[in-house]
Amino acid sequence: MLGWDAFGVAGRELAEQVAASGFVPDVVMAIARGGLFIAGTLGYDLDVKNLHVVNVEFYTGVDERLDMPVMLPPVPAAVDLAGARVLIADDVADTGETLKLVRDFCRDHVAEARIAVVYEKPRSIVKCDYVWRTTDKWITFPWSALPPVARRE
């Protein structure tokens, strides 16, 4: 399990990787829900106030997923991204399918898109630009360690 303290270290070290590479994002795009936390951290650490959220449904449970990821509304407006340098942020590149969907969406609208993740798994079809750790194990994040307080039916 990744704890909150280690998550803080991960976020800072990812930001340092981005800064050291010379990439200066105009926008940090969070893949909800897991990417919201790292996107906020990267936004603060890289002094980027323009954060966007893209909602993608893929995982339905622990290691259970749909056949393919689906972008849910509201989809970011292409006009808001035109010509921008975008840093796509997510908690984990597992299969890479979600990241591929978002990267391909961005590719049609932005000047450049790069990807930062806390964890990348070797099986991911997308190789991320910035990775804190690589693992082939299931990761329990601090924000999803406990079950929901209320369940939606």
Describe it for me?
With 153 residues, this protein is α/β, with parallel strands linked by helices. The chain has a single domain, classed as Rossmann fold (3-Layer(aba) Sandwich), CATH 3.40.50.2020. Helices cover 29% and strands 32% of the residues. It has four helices and six strands, in the order H-E-H-E-E-H-E-H-E-E. It has a six-stranded mixed β-sheet.
Structural class, from helix and strand content? alpha/beta
**Major beta sheet, specifics?**
6 strands, mixed
Q: Using DSSP, what is the number of strands? A: 6
Q: Average the pLDDT over all residues and give the rounded result.
A: 92
CATH architecture: 3-Layer(aba) Sandwich
- CATH fold category name: Rossmann fold
Total helices: the number is 4
Low-confidence stretches: none
What's the level 1 CATH class?
A: Alpha Beta
Shape: globular
Elements, N to C (H/E):
HEHEEHEHEE
> Fraction of residues in helices?
25-40%
Concise summary:
This protein is α/β, with parallel strands linked by helices and 153 residues long. The chain contains four helices and six strands.
Features:
single chain, alpha/beta, Rossmann fold, 6-stranded mixed beta sheet, 29% helix
Topology readout:
Elements: H1 4-21, E1 27-32, H2 35-45, E2 51-61, E3 64-72, H3 78-81, E4 85-93, H4 97-107, E5 112-120, E6 130-134
